[in-house]
UniProtKB/TrEMBL annotation, chain A:
This is Uncharacterized protein. Keywords: Membrane, Transmembrane, Transmembrane helix. It comes from the Bacteria. The chain crosses the membrane at residues 6-27, 39-61, 73-94, 101-119. It comes from Halospina denitrificans. The keyword Transmembrane applies.
UniProtKB/TrEMBL annotation, chain B:
It comes from the Bacteria. It comes from Halospina denitrificans. The chain crosses the membrane at residues 12-33, 39-59, 109-129, 136-153. Keywords: Membrane, Transmembrane, Transmembrane helix. This is Uncharacterized protein.
Length: 121, 155
């Protein structure tokens, strides 16, 4: 029990510092760099935002004990297919120039909804 | 103060100190990584921290008593105990996926400070509510965290 508490304290102490260290390494001293551009305004943007939000919906959906609205294994096929479609559209079909400012946020909202409805843990 | 109360107070104090260190790092480390030696130091530190957290998470995964144990189950279960993980992850998402390109925080350098303060406040509020038998819904924590990350720390 004591060890478990100690581990939790160590984890809590390290987590925020780790996030900042990684962020400083990845973003560097300047804003508007390549990583920021890649995540926010390239063909990868919809896929990255959707996938991250899908996991957030998977973990943090609104109802404990929630079951997928589409029965297994079709739920996997559905959100897997949607993820594939978004990847194909973003990377190969739609010109990244038409992506608007609010697209990342829209993909987050849709991804969170999909993760909650189709893949709740 | 009960043992649980002392543990909770210790957790809040640890988180507070960690957030203060994180703010200082966010302010000064971008200058350090401009030099090769500084980048190495930050890189090695980050590697050690990530490795330690992964090891701790792995130990936690094997030591709990949850059926169908997995990282996802642990994370979901953690929302019964703390608001930290949904809030922190959502704030980081807000940093990247906010609705306006080239967004600058209206709070300037105080933005990250406010984010750290609200992070601490949200964790404490969640713990206080839990002790009274209530819980802040995870989806609400995620929504508020996303907004906080967008406004205070946009990339």
């Amino acid at each position: 029990m004591l060890k478990q508490r100690l581990m939790i304290q160590i984890g809590i102490a390290m987590a925020p510092i780790t996030v900042v260290l990684l962020d400083v390494l990845l973003v560097g001293p300047d804003s508007g760099n390549e990583l920021v551009q890649t995540i926010r305004s390239t063909g990868a943007t919809p896929f990255i935002a959707w996938t991250v939000a899908l996991f957030m919906g998977h973990w943090f959906h609104p109802v404990d004990g929630l079951k997928p609205v589409v029965p297994e294994p079709w739920n996997y096929a559905l959100f897997g297919g949607l993820t594939l479609l978004i990847g194909i559209l973003g990377f190969w079909v739609i010109d990244a120039d038409v992506f608007s400012d609010w697209l990342p946020t829209l993909m987050v909202v849709l991804g969170f909804g999909a993760g909650s409805l189709l893949w709740p843990v | 103060m009960t043992t649980t109360g002392k543990t909770l107070a210790a957790t809040h104090a640890t988180l507070f100190l960690s957030l203060v260190v994180a703010i200082l790092l966010a302010m000064f480390a971008p200058r350090w990584v401009q030099t090769e030696a500084g980048a190495w130091v930050v890189g090695i530190l980050a590697l050690v921290f990530v490795a330690t957290l992964l090891i701790l998470t792995s130990i936690a995964s094997f030591a709990d008593n949850i059926d169908n144990n997995s990282f996802s189950y642990l994370l979901r279960k953690s929302t019964l105990d703390t608001t930290f993980y949904p809030w922190a992850l959502a704030a980081y998402m807000g940093r990247w996926f906010h609705p306006v390109d080239d967004l600058q925080s209206p709070l300037g350098v105080w933005g990250p400070v406010l984010l750290m303060a609200t992070t601490w406040g949200m964790v404490v509020l969640g713990d206080v509510m839990r002790r009274r038998g209530k819980r802040i819904w995870p989806w609400l924590v995620v929504s508020l965290g996303f907004i906080a990350g967008s406004l205070t720390w946009p990339a």
